[in-house]
Amino acid sequence: MTHRAYSVSEHLFLAAAVISGLLTVAVFCFLFLFGLPLLQSGQLTDLLFSPWAPAKGLYGIYPMLKTSLLLALLSMAIAFPISLGCSFIITSLAPVRLRGFLLAVIRVMTGIPTVVYSFAALFLLVPLMRNLIGHGTGMTILTATPVLAMVIAPTMILFFVNSFTRVSTAYTLATDALGGSETQKLLYVILPQAWPGVVNGVLLGFGRAMGDTMVSLMLAGNSIGVPESVTESARTLTAHIALVMAFDFDSMEFKSVFVCGLFLYILTAVLMMLFRMSTAYFSGRK
Amino acid sequence: MRKTIYSVSLSLLTATLLLFFASWSLASDDLSSFAEQKGVLRIAGGTAHIPVMKEAAKQIINFNPKIQISIAGGGSGLGIKQAGEGMVDIGNAGRKASEKEINKYNLKLLKWAVDGVGTVVHPKNNVQSLTSAQLQDIYSGKVNNWNEVGGVNREINLYTRDEASGTRKVFWKKALAKGDISVKANVVVSNGAMKTAVAGDPFAIGFVSVGHIDSSVTPLTLDGVTPTLDTVRSGEYKVSRGLYSLTKGEASGLSKLFLDFIMSPTGQKIVADKGFIPVR
Q: What is the pTM of this model?
């Protein structure tokens, strides 16, 4: 009886896994099919490296591609050290009572919609940046960066904390027995052990940073030029898709959105694979 | 005697009741067709239309709570597309749908208001008027400092709308004479967002539907004409357009009742109250 129940639930979960896996593939096929006319016309390099100027027949996504990568990398550079530090504090450095409280706060933060952060930043951060930069609108890549970092950090912290607490107590107890301090335990035992979890957290955070729409749409200014510095207004791939969506189905503008989606998809997939491969490589070598 | 008093008071009562009913039916005459209706009406598209749509919906829902009306933005392009694909019952557009779009989706257009698109700046900006040529140079990026047009020595912050916006299309065609819009221009996604952006940025220049202009932004005089209701109505201010609602095929059911209401005296009064020019 128990065996049968087990196999039923097993099949259910297997089906769920297969369906969600197939859905991902289906989305890729869908994007590919709709992007095909543009890709077939031999304009692939044009698309990648030309600017966006529909009036001149140019549907390039280079400015958006550059902005997306720049914004994701910058916010990652802020969010990663903060997340690592926060997870150190939550797992071992803070007083025990405070740890639970901090973790609860982080959990709440993961659930706050990004539009709320963006809206607050629109009224608080944008005027500040305008004064700091001294020219322009205050809606720049640099304005969106800390907000995006705040959006991705909680996810990363939760991931880091999980992987830290999963480190075998045999190791941590042994460190304690040897008289190691909390800091030594963190640096020499927990971090080397939890490293694949940290990489996975980074991966997830980067994926969120690339995929987030609202933050850059509301704060980065959305201008279609190629950004030459981080104090300039620019448009990410996701914001571009949101802005061009409203065109009618037959227009080239609308078709080019599928190519945008395709690149976003491929970019994230390749990054994920690279990270996974490197994790497998490093953990295999150990 | 007693009988007379009785009949007098009775007739008085009847008269009062009649008067009451008369006034009641006068006020809600345009709404009365919604009396026995129920259902859901979905509206989306042009963001200039939203204030009118919301007020109309409020009155209809207050009159008959069984009717649900959802109103979304998204821009003119989205309004035309979603109406054509049947995703909404009524799509709004701040521009005429193209021949291609009309034929493809069998769209029916109803123009219920005229609206101007005015150039706006921050209230603290001392530049109050521009010529068309200056405006075109500013938007193309040729002129990028306020001191070149008589203002302070600060960079001009350009704001424009997304490519599918009807407001942008009218502004581009009639105010910019189809000139270039600089790639450095910031893009916002609705009339409301444009107003918020310009109201918060002392060195901004943008454009919004005249119905959206309030004390938080200053309308610029263009070639000597200030965009106001009067100048748009008289045709003196040229940057104007019709506000349209679209349905797939002839409007029917709730959609028809809603559009009839917008065209009724009460509906057209809402149009005027919200800062647009009624068509009737």
A: 0.75
